[in-house]
Amino acid sequence: MYNIKTINKISPVGLDKLKAKGCNVGENIAAPDGIIVRSADMHDYEVNPELLGVARAGAGYNNIPIDEFAEKGIVVFNSPGANAEAVKEQTVCSMVLASRDVVGSIEWVKSIADQGDKIPTLVEKGKSNFAGPELMGKTVGVLGLGATGALVANACLALDMDVIGYDPFMSVEAAWRLSRDAKRADDIGEIFRNCDYISINIPYNEDTHHMLDAKAFAAMRDGVRIINESRAEVVDDDAMLAALESGKVAKYVTDFPNEKILGGKNVIALPHLGACTPESEDRCAEMAAKQLYEYLKNGNIVNSVNLPSAKLERMGVCRLCVIHHNIPGMINRVLDLITKKNINVEHMINKPYGRYAYTIIDLNDEIWDDTANTIREMDDVLRVRVLH
User: In Å, what is the CA distance from 386 to each residue of 318, 346, 367, 378?
Assistant: First the structure.
């Protein structure tokens, strides 16, 4: 069947389903058709010519060179929403950590462990040093209202907080998940001006790089508490350190530690624990495996981050799948060649995604290797597959 290589430890919940379908799955596959990865850096990974798809068992994908892979006709998938529950729970936990000095109090209690019967008195005397505000009645701004952000917003409402969400690209599906009690901001400045807490749940890309910079911090309330469950690069570290030092930001809780931010005042850094629950790892692995197998077997693309999503029910003798640049006349060139071979099109779909496009064509007869090879040799064609 198909050879699937795993990078990092992947939950057997997903891998076992691939094995049940006859796939050869393991860490030492030499020439894989597909790869399932978690957080390993693939930017210098040398791919084999047979590689068709890479499935990320998680939401973030900055560890994968998606543009380079697109040019090679390699589909990259992620698993959006599979870890949303786990990240939501950690976000709420982080808001509590940002409010009361729970971390500092734990370390202080350890330091008085040798004080014997004085401990109760010392505890009562010292506990006020670690006090902080309640969440109830405060205003939280949620940046990004996708699978995770909507859950965070709803959880904060359940804690009797006022919620303002900002997401200019909010999907209809996400809108249905979000409580009607959450207010939608028209611009990000509304979040900065009005919120005691800010939860960052946006995806990282070129547009969100350093979204929280010196200008953003200057627009925020004094003493704001910020939770970063997105990616480190969404925040300008130098600007954050300056804001922490001045007191503009009272506390910064991040799931993405680095050398610079770890030295900052009032920083709580977690070791990327957001999706580290067995339930989340199982869901991510299962989703990644399902999407990868569906592409390998049927050519359908769901939740790709570098190429178009396209799904078509099988209804012909064979299926032709073409990944190509999104240029005028490309489909006509392919269809003209098929017509000259006296093959009829049963059904087809074409989906664009920026400079790329993906075409699925179901045919009423077999397509021979010479025809497929002619399509492969066309300018701007990146990958051709014939599925039977």
Answer: 7, 15, 8, 16
Check residue 231 and give its pLDDT: 92
Domain end: 214, 246, 269, which one? 269
- Predicted local distance difference test score (pLDDT) of residue 376: 96
* 166 in the same domain as 139: yes
d(CA 261, CA 197): 19
pLDDT of residue 60: 85
Its pTM stands at: 0.83
Provide the domain count of the chain. 3
Domain extent, residue 354, equals: 312-388
Same domain, 94 and 158: yes
What's the token pair of residue 4? 């699937």
Q: Which residues of the chain have pLDDT under 70?
A: none
Instruction: For residues 129 and 253, state if they share a domain.
Output: yes
Write down the pLDDT at residue 169.
85
Same domain, yes or no: 40 and 114: no
